[in-house]
Amino acid sequence: MIELTDVHKSYAGGVRALDGVGVRIDAGELVGIVGPSGSGKSTMLHVLGTLDRPTSGQVRIAGHDVNTLEDAQLSALRASRIGFVFQQFHLAPGTTALDNVADGLLYSGRRCPERRELAARALTRVGLGHRLTHRPHELSGGERQRVAIARAVAGGPALLLADEPTGALDSASGSGVMKLLRDLHRDGTTVVIITHDNDIARSLPRQIGIRDGRIVSDSALVSLAGGLR
Ligand code: ADP
Questions:
Q1: What is the pLDDT of residues 187-223, one digit of tens each?
Q2: Is residue 66 part of a domain?
Q3: pLDDT at 185
Q4: What CATH number does residue 39 fall under?
Q5: Ligand 1 neighbours (beta carbon < 6 A)
């Protein structure tokens, strides 16, 4: 599903946000990327999600080499294969839950009635079938994040990328959101969750540790090494 090979990402001023990252994530995995603030997690998520191109190195997503794709092709890949969830929800204010989710499908090539039908289905799936006409300010934080998750998965993406999805939530709402992400994973979506919360990371089947733009641990490699011993 995802393969990064010797990926570097530098910013002006000599910041090396990613400094030689190599990692492979297979279809069907549920992975946590964990590290302190400033370690490069968000940059890695942007690169994984084709929102950003690496300065050097190879990124393969769902069989495509990102370096060889034009921006329009990258947008099409994103729209059809990848869903995003962010800490601050990023919902359109004053817009109903249904329209927030349906508008996320604008670039999917689907017509309006189908977009709204898929949106209603996704909202029902996240437990918000009774909140379709509520606007973000009429919803709790946990409910807003559920709307954002519904928007991310309404088009049936193969890959869901979540950047600190529980970071702005109280612990009960956060647990609900984590359960939802696990359910989506169980139903076949590959899920990558960025977190600086060690408890959340520990609860996931695979954890990748990042620090100073480098991968410093990978529980999948540890268990492989353990198996070979
Ligand atoms: P994290 O998500 O782990 O907090 P980031 O990926 O956001 O880390 O940032 C990694 C490093 O790259 C930090 O030093 C940050 O200041 C820097 N950085 C991130 N985005 C930019 C940018 N657009 N321009 C310059 N520096 C950036």
A1: 999 999 999 888 999 999 999 999 999 999 999 987 6
A2: no
A3: 96
A4: 3.40.50.300
A5: 11, 15, 17, 35, 37-43
